[in-house]
Queue: 3 jobs
Job 1
Amino acid sequence: MVVKPNDQGAPGPFTKDKFQFDAARDCYICPVGNLLTYRSINRQTGHRNYTITDAKLCRTCAHFSVCTKNWVGRNISRAPLEEIRKTIQDRYVSAAGQAIYARRQSKVEPPFGHIKRNLGVQAFLLRRFAGVRAETAILATCFNITRMMTLVGVGALLPKLRTS
Protein backbone atom coordinates (compact mmCIF):
# COMPACT_ATOMS: atom_id res chain seq x y z
CA MET A 1 0.00 0.00 0.00
CA VAL A 2 1.30 3.46 -0.90
CA VAL A 3 -0.17 6.51 0.80
CA LYS A 4 0.95 10.11 0.55
CA PRO A 5 2.30 11.19 3.95
CA ASN A 6 0.22 13.70 5.87
CA ASP A 7 2.81 16.32 6.72
CA GLN A 8 1.71 18.46 9.63
CA GLY A 9 2.72 22.05 9.06
CA ALA A 10 5.76 23.73 7.62
CA PRO A 11 9.20 22.19 8.16
CA GLY A 12 11.35 23.84 10.76
CA PRO A 13 14.31 23.29 13.05
CA PHE A 14 12.17 21.96 15.92
CA THR A 15 9.44 19.90 14.25
CA LYS A 16 8.63 16.49 15.70
CA ASP A 17 10.83 14.68 13.17
CA LYS A 18 13.89 16.53 14.54
CA PHE A 19 13.34 14.93 17.97
CA GLN A 20 14.83 11.44 18.33
CA PHE A 21 12.73 8.71 19.90
CA ASP A 22 14.57 6.33 22.23
CA ALA A 23 12.42 3.19 22.39
CA ALA A 24 14.57 1.55 25.09
CA ARG A 25 14.04 4.45 27.51
CA ASP A 26 10.58 5.40 26.12
CA CYS A 27 11.48 9.04 25.70
CA TYR A 28 12.24 11.72 23.10
CA ILE A 29 15.53 13.59 22.92
CA CYS A 30 15.27 17.18 21.70
CA PRO A 31 17.83 18.61 19.26
CA VAL A 32 19.53 20.40 22.17
CA GLY A 33 19.78 17.13 24.13
CA ASN A 34 17.03 17.47 26.75
CA LEU A 35 14.73 14.55 27.54
CA LEU A 36 10.98 14.49 27.02
CA THR A 37 9.61 11.62 29.11
CA TYR A 38 6.29 9.78 28.94
CA ARG A 39 3.63 11.50 31.04
CA SER A 40 0.16 10.32 30.01
CA ILE A 41 -1.97 8.66 27.36
CA ASN A 42 -4.96 10.10 25.54
CA ARG A 43 -7.73 7.54 26.17
CA GLN A 44 -9.69 8.52 23.03
CA THR A 45 -6.88 8.40 20.47
CA GLY A 46 -4.33 6.18 22.20
CA HIS A 47 -1.61 8.79 21.66
CA ARG A 48 1.18 8.86 24.24
CA ASN A 49 2.15 12.31 25.52
CA TYR A 50 5.77 13.20 26.25
CA THR A 51 6.83 16.37 28.06
CA ILE A 52 10.10 17.95 29.12
CA THR A 53 11.28 16.75 32.52
CA ASP A 54 11.99 20.26 33.82
CA ALA A 55 10.12 23.27 32.39
CA LYS A 56 13.02 25.54 33.36
CA LEU A 57 15.19 23.75 30.81
CA CYS A 58 12.85 24.90 28.04
CA ARG A 59 12.40 28.43 29.34
CA THR A 60 16.14 29.00 29.66
CA CYS A 61 16.95 27.42 26.28
CA ALA A 62 18.14 29.81 23.56
CA HIS A 63 15.58 28.27 21.16
CA PHE A 64 12.58 28.57 23.51
CA SER A 65 10.42 30.83 21.32
CA VAL A 66 11.22 28.86 18.15
CA CYS A 67 10.66 25.39 19.63
CA THR A 68 7.65 26.17 21.82
CA LYS A 69 5.87 29.07 23.44
CA ASN A 70 4.35 26.83 26.10
CA TRP A 71 5.43 28.02 29.56
CA VAL A 72 5.49 24.46 30.93
CA GLY A 73 7.84 23.35 28.14
CA ARG A 74 7.69 21.35 24.94
CA ASN A 75 5.41 18.37 24.60
CA ILE A 76 5.10 15.75 21.85
CA SER A 77 2.28 13.36 21.08
CA ARG A 78 3.13 9.90 19.69
CA ALA A 79 0.57 7.88 17.73
CA PRO A 80 0.16 4.16 18.54
CA LEU A 81 1.64 3.09 15.17
CA GLU A 82 4.19 5.88 14.85
CA GLU A 83 7.04 3.48 14.09
CA ILE A 84 5.53 2.46 10.74
CA ARG A 85 5.14 6.08 9.58
CA LYS A 86 8.79 6.20 8.41
CA THR A 87 8.36 2.92 6.49
CA ILE A 88 5.28 4.26 4.72
CA GLN A 89 7.01 7.55 3.95
CA ASP A 90 10.05 5.73 2.49
CA ARG A 91 7.76 3.54 0.39
CA TYR A 92 5.97 6.61 -0.99
CA VAL A 93 9.23 8.41 -1.86
CA SER A 94 10.73 5.40 -3.71
CA ALA A 95 10.49 5.14 -7.52
CA ALA A 96 8.24 2.08 -7.29
CA GLY A 97 6.00 3.90 -4.80
CA GLN A 98 5.68 6.90 -7.10
CA ALA A 99 4.66 4.60 -9.99
CA ILE A 100 2.00 2.94 -7.83
CA TYR A 101 0.77 6.32 -6.58
CA ALA A 102 0.52 7.64 -10.15
CA ARG A 103 -1.70 4.64 -11.04
CA ARG A 104 -3.79 5.29 -7.92
CA GLN A 105 -4.30 8.92 -8.98
CA SER A 106 -5.63 7.83 -12.35
CA LYS A 107 -7.89 5.03 -11.09
CA VAL A 108 -8.98 5.83 -7.53
CA GLU A 109 -9.01 9.62 -7.29
CA PRO A 110 -11.38 10.49 -10.21
CA PRO A 111 -14.49 9.01 -8.53
CA PHE A 112 -13.87 11.13 -5.44
CA GLY A 113 -13.27 14.20 -7.58
CA HIS A 114 -16.51 13.54 -9.50
CA ILE A 115 -18.50 13.03 -6.32
CA LYS A 116 -17.10 16.17 -4.68
CA ARG A 117 -17.13 18.55 -7.65
CA ASN A 118 -19.85 17.33 -10.03
CA LEU A 119 -22.31 15.99 -7.47
CA GLY A 120 -21.48 18.75 -4.98
CA VAL A 121 -20.98 16.47 -1.99
CA GLN A 122 -18.60 18.22 0.40
CA ALA A 123 -19.49 16.40 3.62
CA PHE A 124 -21.56 13.48 4.81
CA LEU A 125 -25.08 14.31 5.93
CA LEU A 126 -25.45 11.27 8.18
CA ARG A 127 -23.39 10.42 11.24
CA ARG A 128 -21.97 7.23 12.69
CA PHE A 129 -20.47 4.41 10.69
CA ALA A 130 -23.71 2.83 9.43
CA GLY A 131 -25.06 6.14 8.12
CA VAL A 132 -21.82 7.14 6.43
CA ARG A 133 -21.51 3.67 4.93
CA ALA A 134 -25.04 3.86 3.49
CA GLU A 135 -24.44 7.34 2.10
CA THR A 136 -21.15 6.21 0.54
CA ALA A 137 -22.91 3.24 -1.09
CA ILE A 138 -25.52 5.56 -2.65
CA LEU A 139 -22.84 7.93 -3.94
CA ALA A 140 -20.81 5.04 -5.38
CA THR A 141 -23.92 3.70 -7.11
CA CYS A 142 -24.63 7.13 -8.61
CA PHE A 143 -21.05 7.34 -9.85
CA ASN A 144 -21.18 3.83 -11.34
CA ILE A 145 -24.46 4.44 -13.17
CA THR A 146 -23.16 7.75 -14.52
CA ARG A 147 -19.97 6.01 -15.67
CA MET A 148 -21.93 3.21 -17.37
CA MET A 149 -24.09 5.79 -19.14
CA THR A 150 -20.93 7.46 -20.43
CA LEU A 151 -19.26 4.23 -21.57
CA VAL A 152 -22.24 2.22 -22.91
CA GLY A 153 -24.79 4.92 -23.57
CA VAL A 154 -28.30 5.31 -22.21
CA GLY A 155 -29.90 3.46 -25.13
CA ALA A 156 -27.83 0.32 -24.59
CA LEU A 157 -27.91 0.53 -20.79
CA LEU A 158 -31.71 0.65 -20.27
CA PRO A 159 -32.46 -2.76 -21.84
CA LYS A 160 -29.72 -4.34 -19.74
CA LEU A 161 -31.14 -2.83 -16.54
CA ARG A 162 -34.68 -4.04 -17.41
CA THR A 163 -33.58 -7.65 -17.81
CA SER A 164 -31.64 -7.74 -14.55
Note: The chain has seven helices and five strands.
Job 2
Amino acid sequence: MYRYGAKSSDRLSTCHPALDRVFRLALEISPYDITIIHGYRGQELQDSLFDAGLSKLAFPKSKHNATDRFGQPCSEAVDFAPWVNGGIDWNDTLIFSVVAGVLFAAASEHDIELRWGGDWDGDGSSRDQSFMDLGHIEIIL
Protein backbone atom coordinates (compact mmCIF):
# COMPACT_ATOMS: atom_id res chain seq x y z
CA MET A 1 0.00 0.00 0.00
CA TYR A 2 1.23 3.47 -0.84
CA ARG A 3 1.21 6.63 1.28
CA TYR A 4 1.40 10.25 0.24
CA GLY A 5 4.62 11.99 1.19
CA ALA A 6 4.74 15.33 2.97
CA LYS A 7 4.73 17.41 -0.25
CA SER A 8 1.80 15.54 -1.78
CA SER A 9 -0.13 15.71 1.50
CA ASP A 10 0.52 19.44 1.78
CA ARG A 11 -0.68 19.97 -1.78
CA LEU A 12 -3.81 17.88 -1.18
CA SER A 13 -4.56 19.95 1.92
CA THR A 14 -5.12 22.95 -0.40
CA CYS A 15 -7.88 21.11 -2.27
CA HIS A 16 -11.62 20.76 -1.90
CA PRO A 17 -12.29 18.14 0.83
CA ALA A 18 -14.08 15.90 -1.67
CA LEU A 19 -10.97 15.75 -3.86
CA ASP A 20 -8.87 14.93 -0.81
CA ARG A 21 -11.19 11.99 -0.05
CA VAL A 22 -11.03 10.76 -3.65
CA PHE A 23 -7.26 10.88 -3.84
CA ARG A 24 -6.77 9.19 -0.46
CA LEU A 25 -9.06 6.30 -1.41
CA ALA A 26 -7.51 6.10 -4.88
CA LEU A 27 -4.05 5.64 -3.40
CA GLU A 28 -5.35 2.72 -1.32
CA ILE A 29 -6.68 0.88 -4.40
CA SER A 30 -4.22 2.01 -7.08
CA PRO A 31 -1.71 -0.40 -8.60
CA TYR A 32 0.64 2.60 -8.87
CA ASP A 33 1.92 5.20 -6.45
CA ILE A 34 0.49 8.67 -7.13
CA THR A 35 2.26 11.97 -6.59
CA ILE A 36 0.44 15.28 -6.32
CA ILE A 37 1.97 17.97 -8.54
CA HIS A 38 -0.45 20.84 -7.82
CA GLY A 39 -3.52 21.54 -5.79
CA TYR A 40 -4.15 25.23 -5.25
CA ARG A 41 -2.13 27.57 -7.48
CA GLY A 42 -1.59 31.21 -6.62
CA GLN A 43 -1.47 33.96 -9.23
CA GLU A 44 2.25 33.82 -9.97
CA LEU A 45 2.30 30.06 -10.59
CA GLN A 46 -1.00 30.02 -12.48
CA ASP A 47 0.01 32.85 -14.78
CA SER A 48 3.45 31.35 -15.42
CA LEU A 49 1.84 28.06 -16.47
CA PHE A 50 -0.64 29.96 -18.63
CA ASP A 51 2.18 31.97 -20.27
CA ALA A 52 4.07 28.71 -20.95
CA GLY A 53 1.01 27.15 -22.62
CA LEU A 54 0.66 24.54 -19.86
CA SER A 55 -2.69 25.92 -18.72
CA LYS A 56 -5.52 27.31 -20.81
CA LEU A 57 -6.69 29.72 -18.09
CA ALA A 58 -5.01 32.69 -16.42
CA PHE A 59 -5.51 33.49 -12.74
CA PRO A 60 -8.14 33.44 -11.22
CA LYS A 61 -10.19 31.51 -13.79
CA SER A 62 -8.68 28.04 -13.24
CA LYS A 63 -10.29 25.54 -10.89
CA HIS A 64 -6.82 25.40 -9.31
CA ASN A 65 -7.42 28.98 -8.07
CA ALA A 66 -10.62 28.31 -6.12
CA THR A 67 -10.91 29.46 -2.52
CA ASP A 68 -13.46 28.84 0.18
CA ARG A 69 -15.80 31.46 1.62
CA PHE A 70 -13.01 32.61 3.96
CA GLY A 71 -10.54 33.12 1.09
CA GLN A 72 -8.51 30.02 1.96
CA PRO A 73 -7.22 27.72 -0.81
CA CYS A 74 -9.85 25.18 -1.85
CA SER A 75 -8.70 23.99 -5.25
CA GLU A 76 -11.33 22.20 -7.32
CA ALA A 77 -8.58 20.58 -9.42
CA VAL A 78 -5.55 18.39 -8.84
CA ASP A 79 -2.57 17.78 -11.07
CA PHE A 80 -1.19 14.31 -10.37
CA ALA A 81 1.21 11.79 -11.83
CA PRO A 82 1.83 8.07 -11.43
CA TRP A 83 5.13 7.55 -9.61
CA VAL A 84 6.74 4.41 -11.05
CA ASN A 85 10.27 3.15 -10.50
CA GLY A 86 11.28 6.35 -8.73
CA GLY A 87 10.00 8.80 -11.30
CA ILE A 88 7.33 10.06 -13.69
CA ASP A 89 7.11 8.95 -17.30
CA TRP A 90 5.06 11.77 -18.83
CA ASN A 91 4.81 9.83 -22.10
CA ASP A 92 3.24 6.69 -20.60
CA THR A 93 -0.34 7.48 -21.45
CA LEU A 94 -1.52 4.01 -20.43
CA ILE A 95 -0.42 4.42 -16.80
CA PHE A 96 -2.02 7.88 -16.62
CA SER A 97 -5.24 6.36 -17.99
CA VAL A 98 -5.14 3.56 -15.42
CA VAL A 99 -4.70 6.03 -12.56
CA ALA A 100 -7.51 8.20 -13.93
CA GLY A 101 -9.74 5.11 -13.93
CA VAL A 102 -8.81 4.45 -10.31
CA LEU A 103 -9.68 8.06 -9.45
CA PHE A 104 -13.08 7.69 -11.11
CA ALA A 105 -13.69 4.46 -9.18
CA ALA A 106 -12.76 6.18 -5.90
CA ALA A 107 -14.99 9.14 -6.77
CA SER A 108 -17.95 6.85 -7.44
CA GLU A 109 -17.53 5.38 -3.95
CA HIS A 110 -18.08 8.88 -2.57
CA ASP A 111 -20.76 9.94 -5.12
CA ILE A 112 -18.42 12.60 -6.51
CA GLU A 113 -18.39 13.60 -10.17
CA LEU A 114 -15.04 14.26 -11.87
CA ARG A 115 -13.73 15.57 -15.18
CA TRP A 116 -10.40 14.27 -16.51
CA GLY A 117 -7.99 16.22 -18.70
CA GLY A 118 -7.59 13.17 -20.95
CA ASP A 119 -11.29 13.21 -21.85
CA TRP A 120 -12.61 16.71 -21.19
CA ASP A 121 -16.02 16.07 -22.75
CA GLY A 122 -16.46 12.68 -21.06
CA ASP A 123 -17.30 10.84 -24.26
CA GLY A 124 -14.85 7.99 -23.60
CA SER A 125 -12.38 9.07 -26.27
CA SER A 126 -9.20 11.09 -25.92
CA ARG A 127 -8.78 11.36 -29.69
CA ASP A 128 -10.99 14.45 -29.89
CA GLN A 129 -9.08 16.52 -27.32
CA SER A 130 -7.49 19.79 -28.39
CA PHE A 131 -5.64 20.14 -25.05
CA MET A 132 -4.42 16.88 -23.56
CA ASP A 133 -3.80 17.06 -19.79
CA LEU A 134 -3.60 13.45 -18.63
CA GLY A 135 -2.47 14.42 -15.13
CA HIS A 136 -5.43 16.71 -14.41
CA ILE A 137 -8.60 15.85 -12.50
CA GLU A 138 -11.25 18.33 -11.41
CA ILE A 139 -14.40 18.04 -9.38
CA ILE A 140 -17.74 18.93 -10.92
CA LEU A 141 -19.75 20.82 -8.34
Note: DSSP finds four helices and four strands in the chain.
Job 3
Amino acid sequence: MIDGKPQQYKRGMTMAEYTPWVKHLRASGEELPILGDYLSGYMNREDVRKAFNIPSDTQTWEMCSDRLEYHEQPEASYWIYPVLKNHVRLMFYSGDTDGAVTTYGSKQWIKMLNWDVEEEWRPWFTNGQVSGYVEKYDGLDFVTVKGVGHMAPQWAREPVTNMISAWIHNETF
Protein backbone atom coordinates (compact mmCIF):
# COMPACT_ATOMS: atom_id res chain seq x y z
CA MET A 1 0.00 0.00 0.00
CA ILE A 2 1.32 3.42 -0.95
CA ASP A 3 -0.81 6.45 -0.06
CA GLY A 4 -3.54 3.97 0.89
CA LYS A 5 -3.58 2.45 -2.62
CA PRO A 6 -2.51 -1.12 -3.40
CA GLN A 7 0.59 -1.29 -5.60
CA GLN A 8 1.98 -4.20 -7.58
CA TYR A 9 5.57 -5.16 -8.19
CA LYS A 10 7.40 -8.02 -9.80
CA ARG A 11 8.03 -10.97 -7.52
CA GLY A 12 11.53 -12.34 -7.09
CA MET A 13 12.89 -15.08 -9.32
CA THR A 14 13.80 -18.69 -8.77
CA MET A 15 17.38 -19.69 -9.50
CA ALA A 16 16.02 -21.46 -12.60
CA GLU A 17 14.61 -18.16 -13.87
CA TYR A 18 17.69 -16.14 -12.87
CA THR A 19 20.22 -18.57 -14.33
CA PRO A 20 18.39 -20.77 -16.85
CA TRP A 21 21.66 -22.18 -18.23
CA VAL A 22 22.52 -24.12 -15.03
CA LYS A 23 19.97 -26.89 -15.54
CA HIS A 24 22.43 -29.52 -14.32
CA LEU A 25 22.33 -28.08 -10.77
CA ARG A 26 18.57 -28.41 -10.32
CA ALA A 27 16.68 -31.47 -9.18
CA SER A 28 13.55 -32.16 -11.20
CA GLY A 29 10.29 -31.52 -9.39
CA GLU A 30 12.12 -29.63 -6.66
CA GLU A 31 10.24 -26.73 -5.03
CA LEU A 32 12.46 -23.74 -5.75
CA PRO A 33 12.64 -20.74 -3.42
CA ILE A 34 11.83 -17.30 -4.74
CA LEU A 35 14.86 -15.02 -4.38
CA GLY A 36 14.36 -11.38 -3.48
CA ASP A 37 10.75 -11.42 -2.29
CA TYR A 38 11.61 -10.36 1.25
CA LEU A 39 13.73 -7.46 0.00
CA SER A 40 11.06 -6.39 -2.50
CA GLY A 41 8.38 -6.50 0.17
CA TYR A 42 10.55 -4.49 2.57
CA MET A 43 11.58 -1.84 0.01
CA ASN A 44 7.95 -1.31 -0.99
CA ARG A 45 6.59 -0.85 2.53
CA GLU A 46 5.11 2.62 2.97
CA ASP A 47 7.18 3.34 6.10
CA VAL A 48 10.44 2.30 4.38
CA ARG A 49 9.71 4.41 1.31
CA LYS A 50 8.99 7.35 3.62
CA ALA A 51 12.27 6.77 5.51
CA PHE A 52 14.15 6.84 2.17
CA ASN A 53 12.20 9.95 1.07
CA ILE A 54 10.79 8.15 -1.96
CA PRO A 55 7.84 10.12 -3.35
CA SER A 56 4.58 8.21 -3.48
CA ASP A 57 4.31 8.73 -7.26
CA THR A 58 7.63 6.89 -7.82
CA GLN A 59 7.26 3.36 -9.16
CA THR A 60 7.57 0.40 -6.81
CA TRP A 61 10.99 -1.13 -6.23
CA GLU A 62 11.86 -4.33 -8.11
CA MET A 63 14.99 -6.42 -7.74
CA CYS A 64 15.40 -6.99 -11.48
CA SER A 65 13.10 -4.72 -13.41
CA ASP A 66 12.04 -5.53 -16.94
CA ARG A 67 10.74 -1.97 -17.35
CA LEU A 68 14.21 -0.68 -18.15
CA GLU A 69 15.33 -0.95 -21.74
CA TYR A 70 18.99 -1.82 -21.70
CA HIS A 71 21.23 -1.34 -24.66
CA GLU A 72 24.77 -2.45 -25.20
CA GLN A 73 27.67 -0.47 -26.47
CA PRO A 74 30.81 -2.21 -27.71
CA GLU A 75 33.09 -0.57 -25.15
CA ALA A 76 30.67 -1.14 -22.22
CA SER A 77 32.01 0.78 -19.22
CA TYR A 78 35.65 0.27 -20.24
CA TRP A 79 36.06 3.90 -21.34
CA ILE A 80 35.29 5.41 -17.91
CA TYR A 81 38.15 3.78 -15.98
CA PRO A 82 40.99 5.79 -17.60
CA VAL A 83 38.90 8.95 -17.18
CA LEU A 84 38.45 8.30 -13.45
CA LYS A 85 42.02 7.10 -12.79
CA ASN A 86 43.93 9.46 -10.47
CA HIS A 87 40.68 11.29 -9.61
CA VAL A 88 38.64 8.63 -7.82
CA ARG A 89 39.66 5.44 -5.98
CA LEU A 90 38.32 2.50 -7.94
CA MET A 91 37.38 -0.99 -6.81
CA PHE A 92 36.04 -3.76 -8.99
CA TYR A 93 34.79 -6.81 -7.11
CA SER A 94 33.48 -10.09 -8.41
CA GLY A 95 31.95 -13.21 -6.88
CA ASP A 96 34.18 -16.08 -7.96
CA THR A 97 31.26 -18.34 -8.94
CA ASP A 98 29.45 -15.69 -11.01
CA GLY A 99 28.11 -17.25 -14.18
CA ALA A 100 26.96 -13.93 -15.64
CA VAL A 101 30.11 -11.80 -15.15
CA THR A 102 32.93 -14.29 -14.64
CA THR A 103 35.96 -13.53 -12.50
CA TYR A 104 38.25 -14.73 -15.27
CA GLY A 105 36.58 -12.38 -17.77
CA SER A 106 36.76 -9.47 -15.33
CA LYS A 107 40.45 -10.15 -14.65
CA GLN A 108 41.21 -10.29 -18.39
CA TRP A 109 39.25 -7.08 -18.94
CA ILE A 110 41.19 -5.32 -16.17
CA LYS A 111 44.50 -6.57 -17.60
CA MET A 112 43.54 -4.85 -20.88
CA LEU A 113 43.75 -1.52 -19.02
CA ASN A 114 47.49 -2.21 -18.96
CA TRP A 115 47.92 -0.64 -15.52
CA ASP A 116 50.89 -1.62 -13.36
CA VAL A 117 50.31 -4.18 -10.61
CA GLU A 118 51.18 -2.55 -7.28
CA GLU A 119 50.25 -5.47 -5.02
CA GLU A 120 50.26 -9.07 -6.22
CA TRP A 121 47.30 -11.41 -5.92
CA ARG A 122 46.78 -12.29 -2.23
CA PRO A 123 44.00 -13.70 -0.04
CA TRP A 124 41.84 -11.57 2.23
CA PHE A 125 40.12 -12.93 5.33
CA THR A 126 37.00 -12.78 7.50
CA ASN A 127 37.21 -14.40 10.94
CA GLY A 128 40.37 -16.24 9.92
CA GLN A 129 38.79 -17.76 6.78
CA VAL A 130 39.75 -16.89 3.21
CA SER A 131 36.98 -14.66 1.85
CA GLY A 132 38.52 -14.07 -1.58
CA TYR A 133 41.54 -12.54 -3.24
CA VAL A 134 42.70 -9.02 -3.99
CA GLU A 135 45.12 -7.61 -6.54
CA LYS A 136 45.93 -3.91 -6.56
CA TYR A 137 46.73 -2.06 -9.75
CA ASP A 138 47.86 1.53 -10.22
CA GLY A 139 44.41 3.10 -9.96
CA LEU A 140 42.19 0.07 -9.29
CA ASP A 141 41.71 -2.63 -6.66
CA PHE A 142 40.33 -5.93 -8.00
CA VAL A 143 38.71 -8.10 -5.33
CA THR A 144 37.09 -11.53 -5.57
CA VAL A 145 34.56 -12.88 -3.11
CA LYS A 146 34.83 -16.61 -2.49
CA GLY A 147 31.93 -18.96 -3.13
CA VAL A 148 29.32 -16.48 -4.34
CA GLY A 149 28.13 -15.16 -7.65
CA HIS A 150 26.71 -11.97 -9.08
CA MET A 151 24.90 -10.94 -5.91
CA ALA A 152 27.94 -11.16 -3.61
CA PRO A 153 26.59 -8.72 -0.97
CA GLN A 154 23.39 -10.75 -0.71
CA TRP A 155 25.09 -14.13 -0.21
CA ALA A 156 28.29 -13.14 1.65
CA ARG A 157 27.04 -10.27 3.78
CA GLU A 158 29.68 -10.19 6.50
CA PRO A 159 32.74 -10.58 4.24
CA VAL A 160 31.49 -8.07 1.68
CA THR A 161 30.48 -5.54 4.34
CA ASN A 162 33.88 -5.87 6.02
CA MET A 163 35.71 -5.65 2.68
CA ILE A 164 33.86 -2.54 1.51
CA SER A 165 34.16 -0.84 4.91
CA ALA A 166 37.91 -1.53 5.04
CA TRP A 167 38.33 -0.32 1.46
CA ILE A 168 36.40 2.90 2.13
CA HIS A 169 38.59 3.59 5.18
CA ASN A 170 41.74 2.67 3.25
CA GLU A 171 42.48 -0.22 5.64
CA THR A 172 44.02 -3.55 4.76
CA PHE A 173 41.54 -6.39 4.50
Note: The chain has a mean pLDDT of 84.
